[in-house]
Specification:
There is one protein chain. The protein has 805 residues and is of the alpha/beta class. Among the domains are: 156-258 and 359-422, Dimethylsulfoxide Reductase, domain 2 (3-Layer(aba) Sandwich); 262-344, no CATH class; 670-804, Barwin-like endoglucanases, CATH 2.40.40.20. The protein has 25 helices and 33 strands. The strands form nine sheets. Strands 5-4-24-23-22-6-7 form a seven-stranded mixed beta sheet, covered by helices on one side. The protein has a six-stranded mixed β-barrel with strand order 28-32-29-31-30-33. It has a four-stranded parallel beta sheet with strand order 13-12-9-20. α4 links the parallel β6 (108-112) and β7.
Length: 805
């Protein structure tokens, strides 16, 4: 018999993922003895992943650290002393203030990983301390941020595949229509997993309701085996395929012309001489000083503006969707212009099925068939994954894919790609630009690493650019980096490429704090270790994307504290005027847009947005629910979907999508390909582990006991490798060791090496660091190959060779 059954919602720490699933915790004698899925929760409807089912082993693991630790001896020597929380806080406060007084607060980096709910919380601490340098440890910030950015720049908001997750009756709601076609682009959703906040079984649910799949994946997956069309793409060439799809959709007239003309900037004018969109400020005024020739991008009209009358006088130049035009000026000159649609059509014309076939290694007829199936299905939706982020050319690739659901009119309709706002306007996670819990001190924002180089670091993400931050930590230019706060991030084993560079950077820091649940290879290098709580040991909220969920505290484990408790306490020490003393007070503040407090939300458990709320679909662009001024349209600078991005123009990068060959490929580096003749892919999801987490959990380790390398049997035979052999994977940057798994699911030219490996059962102190130096695939991937917007990294398309150990 259990003492209590508690319904709550997952997020990290624990399962590791982006959460949202409803669970029932079985509690006996103050201890969680079992967790199962909540059948009444609209997100997962009782289904649950292996990581959640193993949460009891995670919470109660004998190696879990449950009290603060202070380093004794040399850094990395593995000697620790238990201290109290007050002593830990006092020590951290003193040391960080010393750095701030001597070098400036910007000289401390706040390093975070992915999954856990600390986006706003680590920013709260960093900004209260005065540092603008919150850093996501992955090179090029290559995890969802690139996709989020292109969606924000294109149509003002994020969007996801619509699986009726906004509706109480889900698929049975009469307003809902299942997609006739789903493009699963680079994501293998294995069973009840929750990658990027999207529950895997939803696609299975939709397949049962008639949705046909197009799967774009370099590996043959469970989804591929159920697909109408499987496109086994050459790694890193997704941008060419997306442009090829656009070519077919546009040239064959398969797009939604009415939607494109009314809701996108396709008819807008672009100056022929500059290639940039026409702006009113570029046009002239006459000698009378009060007459101006202007171009109104919201109405797509050229007009005369009389400043005395404060009135427009039309001059009958209103471009059609396609063609070239001349705009008359008052001084008699005429500016030659083309429409955005004309330029986009010219751009995609280069990507014929024949050329795309050559680039991607896909059969021409399959490319054409897939483009037609998607474009001719209504509704249709695209569900995309991490491979789009893990490209140097992530920005134009993501932009091209985003254009597909825009030009086919599949945006914010039932069964399409639905705009995803925070439920009920509650924003606990700072994806939205400008949303911060406390402001930075005046002048500190411009000291953010990457602020001057990348517009996205100024306008989209209030974070430092990862690769530049690492280089600055090593060089000390333009200012030194002396402190490091590490939270939810096992950089040496998981997120960081060229981990020895990160090791060097950490070792030369004056002071390092790590917040985690276990002593990881990275945490072993800290001066102070603070023990964090799992999701069952803390209060919290989740509102992206729906529903609005309460995370309820179920039990307490020893001295562990939630990430927010830790960060809020430290933040108030640096900025005493922060008004919230407890996490609950902060949640009450964040919940004001929903008209309730945390206690009320906790009692309800979860809430779906009511009809008419801006966070509930559909067709909100027609109703004025997307823009701050409440006018119809989208939350972009022009109020329209921007197929040619005015934001990218402002940032000085290409405003239309294009294809760029990966920096390391048989095409771009034939010299390297002579020695390293295999394409290395990494970063695939695991049903047992979340990135570098969970290697110490017995049930999960039983599923995947060894680091493996997937190799085609033909490739293995050529290299004298048999099933179960340990092999080295090597290139010009380094090598790692893995156990051979022979499988025909890959092309013979490619191999797949899962990331995140280390051995918690091995020696943790230097030089061993739990064996991370031997098995980390990130040794083979360089930093500094971010794209023009500051995003992306070549994680899916490096070159390598393999040989038996």
């Amino acid at each position: 018999m259990v003492d209590e059954l508690v319904k709550t919602t997952t997020w990290s720490a624990g399962p590791g993922c982006h959460g949202g699933c409803g669970v029932i915790a079985h509690v006996k004698d103050g201890k969680v003895i079992k967790v199962e899925g909540d059948p009444d929760h609209p997100w997962n409807q009782g289904r649950l992943c292996a990581r959640c089912l193993a949460i009891t082993q995670y919470m109660n693991h004998p190696d879990r650290v449950t009290h603060p630790l202070l380093r004794e001896g040399e850094r990395g020597e593995g000697k620790w002393k238990k201290i109290s929380w007050n002593d830990a806080y006092d020590h951290i406060e003193r040391r960080l203030k010393e750095i701030s007084n001597k070098y400036g607060s910007e000289s401390v980096i706040f390093l975070k990983g992915t999954g856990r709910d600390i986006g706003a919380q680590i920013q709260l601490l960093a900004f209260a301390y005065g540092s603008p340098n919150v850093v996501f440890g992955l090179s090029g910030m290559a995890c969802y941020a690139p996709r989020g950015m292109v969606m924000w720049a294109t149509h003002g908001d994020f969007c996801v595949l619509d699986a009726a997750q906004w509706l109480a009756n889900r698929y049975d709601d009469p307003i809902y229509k299942p997609p006739k076609c789903i493009v699963v682009w680079g994501q293998n959703i294995q069973g009840a997993t929750c990658a990027d906040g999207f529950f895997g079984h939803w696609i299975v649910d939709l397949m049962k309701r008639g949705s046909k799949l197009i799967v774009i994946d370099s590996r043959f997956t469970w989804m591929s085996s159920r697909a109408e069309i499987w496109l086994q793409i050459r790694p890193g060439t997704d941008g060419a395929l997306a442009l090829g799809f656009l070519n077919i959709v546009i040239t064959e007239g398969l797009y939604d012309r009415e939607f494109v003309e009314k809701w996108t900037n396709a008819p807008f004018l672009v100056r022929t001489d500059t290639g940039k969109m026409l702006r009113g400020s570029e046009l002239s005024k006459d000698a009378r000083e009060n007459w101006f020739t202007v171009y109104d991008r919201r109405t797509n009209n050229v007009a005369l503006w009389n400043s005395d009358e404060a009135k427009y006088h039309e001059v009958n130049v209103q471009p059609a969707l396609e063609g070239s035009f001349e705009v008359p000026l008052l001084n008699g000159e005429r500016i030659k212009c083309e429409t955005v649609w004309t330029l986009l059509k010219k751009q995609v014309a280069h990507y014929t099925p024949e050329r795309v076939s050559e680039i991607t290694w896909l059969p021409k007829d399959q490319i054409v068939k897939a483009a037609h199936l998607y474009a001719e299905s209504k509704p249709a939706a695209i569900h995309w994954g991490l491979p789009i982020d893990t490209l140097t050319s992530t920005t134009p690739t993501g932009q091209a894919i985003t254009h597909l659901w825009c030009v086919t009119g599949n945006l914010d309709i039932p069964g399409g790609n639905v705009i995803s706002k925070y439920a009920l306007g509650v924003v606990p996670y700072p994806y939205t630009p400008g949303k911060t819990l406390v402001p930075l001190p005046l002048g500190q924002e411009k000291k953010r690493i990457g602020y001057n180089q990348y517009g996205a670091m100024r306008e989209y993400r209030q974070q430092a650019q990862t690769d530049l931050a690492l280089e600055q930590a090593l060089s000390g230019t333009p200012y030194p980096i002396k402190g490091l706060w590490i939270q939810t991030c096992n950089a040496l084993a998981g997120t960081s490429q060229q981990p020895r560079k990160w090791f060097e950077a950490i070792m030369q820091m004056d002071f390092v704090v790590a917040v985690d649940l276990f002593l990881t290879p990275t945490a072993m290098l800290a001066d102070v270790f603070l023990p964090a709580a799992t999701f069952l040991e803390k209060e919290g909220m989740k509102s992206w994307w729906t529903p609005l969920n309460a995370i309820k505290k179920v039990v307490t484990v020893s001295e562990c504290k939630s990430d927010l408790e830790i960060n809020l306490e430290m933040a108030r020490r640096f900025k005493p005027d922060i008004p919230w003393r407890t996490p609950t007070e902060l949640f009450d503040h964040l919940l004001k847009p929903a008209g309730l407090n945390y206690a009320q939300l906790s009692e309800k458990g979860w809430l779906l947005p009511p009809e008419g709320d801006p966070s509930r679909p559909y067709l909100r662009y027609e109703k004025g629910l997307l823009r701050p001024d409440h006018k119809p349209g989208f939350a972009t600078p022009t109020g329209r979907i921007e197929l040619c991005s005015s934001i990218f123009e402002r940032w000085g990068i290409e405003s239309l999508p294009y294809y760029e060959e990966p920096p390391f490929s048989p095409i771009s580096r034939p010299d390297l390909f002579k020695e390293y003749s295999l394409i290395l892919m990494t970063g695939r999801r695991s049903p047992a582990f979340f990135h570098a987490e969970h290697r110490m959990i017995p049930w999960l380790r039983e599923i995947e006991p060894h680091p493996i390398v997937e190799i085609h049997p033909e490739t293995a035979s050529k290299n004298n490798i048999t099933e179960g052999d340990f092999v080295w994977i090597e290139n010009q940057y380094g090598r790692c060791k893995a156990k051979a798994k022979l499988t025909p699911t890959l092309r013979p030219e490619t191999i797949m090496v899962p990331h995140g490996w280390w051995f918690p059962e091995q020696e943790g102190k230097l030089p061993h660091l739990y064996g991370v130096w031997e098995v980390n695939v990130n040794h083979l991937i360089p930093t500094g190959y971010q794209g023009k917007a500051g995003f992306g990294a070549p994680l899916k398309s490096m070159l390598c060779k393999i040989y038996k150990v």
